[in-house]
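Rotation project, supervised by the postdoc (A.L.). Task for the rotation student: set up a whole-complex structure prediction and record inputs and outputs verbatim in this book. Inputs entered:
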Amino acid sequence: MKKILRNMLLAACLFSLPLSASAAAKDEAKDVNNLKWWQKTVVYEAYPNSFLDTVGNGIGDLNGITAKLDYLQKLGVGAIWLTPIYTSPMGDNGYDVADYCAINPLYGTMDDMENLIKEADKRGIKIVMDLVVNHTSEESQWFKESSSDKDSEFSDWYIWRDAAPDGKEPNNWGSIFGGSAWTWSEKRQQYYLHTFAPFQPDLNWENPKVRKAIYDVANFWLDKGVGGFRIDAVPYIKKPASFANGTIDKATGFAPIHNETANTPGILDYLHEFKQEVEEGKDIFTVGEANGVAADQLHQWVGKNGVFDMIFEFSHVNVKFADGEVWHKTKAWKLTELKQAIAASQANTASDGWYPIFFENHDQPRSVNNFLHEGADTVQGAKALGMLLMTLRGTPFLYQGEELGMSNVSWTSIKDFNDLSTHNQYKLALDNGHGHEGAIKIMQKHSRDNARTPMQWNTEAQAGFTTGKPWLAVNDNYMLVNAEAEAADPGSVLSWYHKLHALRKANPVLIAGDYQELLADNEAIFAYTRNDENTQAIVLINFTGDTVSYPKELVTDAKLLLSSCDGTKRGKLRPYEAVCWTKNISRRS
Ligand code: NOJ
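Outputs recorded:
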């Protein structure tokens, strides 16, 4: 009886309903021909510092990216998101911009940039810029003038406040990188606000001149032919009117600014203006980094009446946190939590809006460490994650090295780490009694440097990344994990990504089809279908190191399109096996 009931339920999941008028309208969205270019492609995030150094100074550069365009084209990449390449003192590796319209000489020249845009274009690839608009560097001319003279035309381009009556900070907010969110300016005799480091003063978006300056910057790059923008730290641009004290987190002694300012009501008004001034009428895409926007708020941010084409929301990468996003309080998590987070984002963009799929970026640890159990087979595990990345509904954002299965570092000295937030977190971990061993373990798991080690191109010195001394050490595993060796190995992670690209190309249902979750309560298998009018794709991914079973009926009459293991059987998945089946469903509609 139980079995019959289960089969009836499965059948209900797998069969399309007859077409009603509204379903017919909805099905338009399932036709790949109705999608925009950026919905059909793969976006590759390049972290220029670590991509490829062509001059031997140990730092990657723009010409290094140009040199690898064919490599990226082969992966099916249609857009490259460059993390900031503007002039910068590099306190936060470019997220502290001194001049938005000039190229950082470490990375090359404006000619190199124009050449990159042109060469990428020839291969059908767009360059996407990182717009860091919540803050600038303290080296920005805007800030220099604002901080030196209250009467300057830039006076209220930043957020200035007088000291509290006791001479201390205006309130108890703590910055995301550690310490108070306020820094005293001797020259101006006032405090300025910074959501991140003291050298990253927040711009005052209340000031229309600031907003206009940002739109001008965006349009400057659009005139150069870029294909869109990733907008950095965008939920913080609007501050609440009151600047009241918040609730203090015991570990830091401050009220986290994230809790006080992220997604403040009124922010969308600014962003509608941004859309109007920057995007309207242009065939580009925008993707906001929107930590603090919940899945059920997605519809306000993306979709027909939204402000961006996509936003990164972080609920799925945050399942590991025990308490909000407090980085030192992590927990063991269950697959169902990850599935629920992803299902919520899929559901909230199902009928309106679009969603970027990502498991890595330059701020996250490597996905094979972050989403697999300790000791997992990282090659098979990377393939499992790759299947998920490339077959969920949305635009896959692939981070450099993810296509190779690059993994976290195991450095034991804090001196090996470069990232400023890692250093702050290490110190805080010591202050909170973790001791060196405990603190360094947290860094190995959590540090942003895990994702920032140089790309592993081949088995030469420094993994072929540079002929000089790399700015950050190369991961020790480069003799095994590198692009050249993997290109020659049909069983490698890189070859798997080539297969996934071919799979998407040959099966538009994986791009445009709707998403229906299967086996929602299963703690071992991530399973779902993608459906258009005629075709159903069935994706099943084993997230464990054991062989597991699922109801065979899910793939009755289905044809196997791709599997990460040989000899795939209906109803069984070997450790980390990832499979994609397909069946024709046209007769049922
Ligand atoms: C988010 C960026 O991804 C991160 O790398 C940076 O440190 C902060 N925003 C500040 O710009």
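Student's summary: The two ends are 28 Å apart (CA to CA).
Supervisor addendum: The first strand starts at residue 42 and ends at 46.
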